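$ ./design --mode recover --in tokens.txt
reading tokens...
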């Protein structure tokens, strides 16, 4: 993909997978940036994805902790509903959600309208619940004896022990909204607010054929879209390991 984005003339042969110094150029990046503004698209993607990540982690941790540690009536039913949500495809809910967000809430052409349907991720809730269930109960009992409330226990005792899974949820959640183009396209037609994935989809369907090298320009946009996800994985990959939660218990 990187080699193709740098080619002045497309080379569809197997040899085209390897860089040819005589056929390398940055004009493809310039061409697509002139059409869709890559930096603005990246900023919009960052706002959309950052809002989704914040909601996913905050609500996922709170709900997962409540389902795993706290005892309250209806906990089993709530967990069953969280599992049931997994079998409902998002595409089935898209039209009702659009009517709710755009017409009832009046959040069309807004970042909040793009973020709100993804703010709570049932998969993240289930993952956090399962990891919180693995923590020794003695840790929470000791915190209660010391006078810590539930929020203090969650922040000071539980979260440090499941930090790798928090980072894993962040990375896995990041990929979805970062590559999402259908829902933001429905919510806003303002090009200045559209994430990069939406701008690329519009470019491919509308104006790519008018570029000097449509193949290279599309690949250049794809490279820009992929780089943040690759960098995020490289930075946090060392944290994706099992935490030795048993070491927190004496004896």
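writing sequence...
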């Amino acid at each position: 993909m990187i080699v193709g984005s740098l080619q002045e003339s497309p080379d569809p042969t197997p040899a085209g997978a390897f860089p040819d110094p005589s056929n390398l150029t940055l004009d493809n990046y310039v061409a697509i940036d002139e059409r869709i503004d890559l930096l603005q698209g990246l900023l919009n993607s960052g706002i959309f994805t950052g809002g989704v990540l914040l909601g996913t982690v905050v609500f996922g941790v709170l709900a997962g902790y409540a389902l795993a540690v706290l005892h309250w009536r209806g906990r089993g039913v709530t967990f069953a509903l969280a599992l049931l949500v997994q079998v409902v495809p998002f595409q089935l809910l898209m039209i009702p959600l659009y009517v709710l967000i755009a017409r009832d809430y009046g959040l069309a052409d807004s970042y909040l309208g793009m973020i709100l349907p993804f703010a709570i991720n049932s998969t993240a809730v289930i993952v956090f619940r399962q990891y919180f269930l693995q923590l020794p109960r003695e840790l929470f009992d000791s915190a209660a004896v010391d006078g810590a409330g539930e929020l203090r226990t969650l922040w000071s005792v539980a979260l440090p022990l499941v930090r790798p899974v928090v980072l894993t949820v962040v990375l896995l959640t990041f990929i979805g909204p970062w590559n999402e183009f259908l829902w933001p396209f429905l919510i806003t037609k303002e090009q200045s607010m559209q994430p990069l994935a939406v701008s690329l989809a519009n470019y491919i369907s509308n104006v790519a054929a008018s570029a000097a090298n449509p193949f290279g320009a599309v690949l250049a946009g794809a490279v820009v879209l992929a780089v943040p996800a690759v960098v995020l994985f490289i930075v946090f990959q060392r944290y994706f390991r099992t935490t030795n939660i048993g070491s927190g218990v004496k004896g």
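exit 0
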